[in-house]
Design brief:
Helix content: under 10%
Structural class: mainly beta
Shape: elongated
Number of helices: 0
Strand content: over 45%
Distance between the termini: 25 Å
Number of strands: 20
Strand order of the largest sheet: 1-2-15-4-11-12-13
Length: 364
């Protein structure tokens, strides 16, 4: 996670960029151990953390999560410390990620579920995948996530999505105050491959309401300053807001350098400022938990294009078939809805007369 991925929009919304394996730009990641930088900004996300700790209460976040696989979007309470020779890992999570591989006891995550977890130590935790009452949560809309943490006569943690309680946990309930976090990160192999360029988490609001009469201890609960944590940084004004495009290199400005992103037909040429002129078919695969979602494909160019979108799956044992064909005359926006369980799209764009395609954008 790097501070360069965090920006505040002019309307007050917080934007956190996530950069996948196709990212090429000026940002740089952090090497293991927080010592030095990597030579690229791939697999970098971002997080905002409260300066102070919070006791028991209701924590609510309104946010729009990235739609891509390979990323875990989260709201979590956390405080890690050692007391009397014992390591404490107080933590409460709501985590959201796409369908790819089994994890957490063999369950398969999906954007139609949330992973709700509470911790007291590294080996004292409980995790549950629970169904979303609102369907797919990567639908490009804002959703409300809430954690109610109780320490009173009936210690428990209640988890809510869009006002509906989806889980209650009564074991491993923390009793120490924790810092509040909101962000996106790249798990090691249990959220799938981040085969995308850049997507964005947008936070509309955060709210906290303490529970009267319920308390928690205050071990290691100092107020954080800019120098307390490596790479702490605080946006002071509106920043550059990243554009979300589920197609990597949508402006074709690096197509010649990255053939693994777009497969280009023979004779295709790219301009100095982007765009591609071609006859034949160019294509790209997109891993995306998109079954039942309304997708929008926007093309900008000169000439006629026929687009074939093939549906598939990256999950073993799940067969998804079918395709849709869209016709573009120069450009425009077309919508389509992949079938249920679809987690892979193959986008094929065909031109028959040396047409120029300036950009291709896929959004939810």
């Amino acid at each position: 996670m790097i501070p360069e991925n965090v920006a505040v929009a002019a309307n007050g919304d917080l934007h956190i960029a996530v950069n996948g394996d196709y990212y090429v730009g000026e940002k740089r990641g952090v090497a293991l151990g927080n010592e030095g930088s990597t030579d690229n900004g791939r697999r970098t996300g971002g997080v905002v953390q409260s300066k102070r700790t919070y006791g028991p209460g209701s924590f609510e976040v309104v946010m729009k999560i990235p739609s891509v696989n390979g990323v875990c979007s989260s709201m979590w309470l956390y405080n890690n410390y050692t007391a009397d020779g014992v390591n404490h890992n107080d933590e409460i999570d709501i985590e959201l990620h796409g369908t790819v591989y089994p994890s957490h006891g063999g369950a398969v995550g999906t954007f139609r579920k949330a992973l709700c977890t509470s911790w007291l130590a590294e080996d004292n935790s409980i995790s549950e995948y629970v169904a979303s009452p609102s369907g797919a949560l990567n639908d490009g809309e804002f959703h409300t996530y809430r954690i109610d943490w109780h320490t009173g006569a009936n210690p428990r943690i209640e988890y809510y999505i869009d006002g509906v309680k989806v889980a209650t946990q009564t074991t491993y309930v923390p009793t120490n105050e924790m810092y509040m976090n909101i962000g996106c990160w790249f798990p090691n192999n249990w959220c799938g491959a981040p085969d995308f360029e850049t997507d964005t988490l947008v936070v509309k609001s955060f709210g906290y309401t303490p529970f009267s009469g319920e308390t928690a201890t205050k071990l290691f609960c100092d107020t954080l300053g800019a120098n307390d944590v490596i790479l702490h940084a605080y946006p002071q004004s509106a920043g550059e807001i990243p554009e979300s495009n589920l197609l990597a290199n949508g402006k074709f400005d690096r197509a010649a350098d990255k053939p693994s992103v777009w497969t280009l037909p023979a004779g295709a040429t790219t301009g100095a400022n982007g765009g591609v002129t071609f006859s034949g078919t160019l294509s790209q695969d997109v891993e995306l938990d998109c079954g039942g979602l309304e997708m929008k494909l926007a093309l900008v160019g000169n000439g006629s294009f026929s687009v074939k979108i093939r549906y598939g799956s990256v999950v073993d044992g799940v067969a998804v078939n079918g395709e849709v064909t869209l016709a573009f005359d120069g450009g425009g926006i077309k919508s389509f809805v992949p079938p249920e369980n679809c987690t892979k799209l193959t986008i094929e764009i065909t031109s028959t007369a040396q047409a120029k395609l300036a950009s291709a954008t896929l959004t939810v």
